[in-house]
Design a protein that fits this description.
4 helices; 48% helix; 140 residues; alpha+beta; 2 domains
């Protein structure tokens, strides 16, 4: 009888260990596939361009040369004139940006998304607010 109890306990431990190992392996593999990107010293937690539609739109805008067409394509209508008069020289000096790091987006009260970008070539940080895929504000 003691042998039977011993074998039942041993069998249940082996079974339990097998389940734990399977769960642990699936947990670790899921954590690896959803890996967290590093924290940037200047802009905080980073995100890749596939993180959201706002990140995709911003990455596309950053990769293009600054022009009148760029203003028409990537900026909200209400912000175009302001951006052209204030930021034209600055934007033309940084665009197109080849290497940059984007922060996680932060939701604003007006439903826009704030994303900070560090341009690696110049170590310049630029802050963007996007709504509906268009840039509504820029800050250097």
């Amino acid at each position: 009888m003691k042998k039977l109890i011993f074998f039942l306990i041993l069998f249940s431990l082996v079974l339990f260990e097998g389940f734990c190992e399977t769960d642990l392996q699936s947990f670790l593999s899921s954590r690896h596939s959803n890996s967290v990107l590093p924290v940037d010293k200047t802009i905080g937690q980073t995100a890749d361009e596939d993180n959201s539609e706002a990140h995709k739109a911003l990455a596309q805008a950053l990769g293009q040369e600054y022009s009148f067409e760029w203003l028409e394509t990537y900026l909200a209508v209400s912000f175009r004139e302001t951006a052209a008069s204030i930021w034209s020289e600055r934007l033309s000096s940084i665009l197109p940006a080849k290497e940059f790091v984007m922060s996680l987006g932060k939701a604003n009260a007006d439903s826009s998304i704030s994303i900070s970008v560090r341009l690696l070539a110049t170590d310049t940080v630029v802050h963007f607010a996007l709504k509906d895929g268009l840039i509504e504000a820029i800050g250097f």
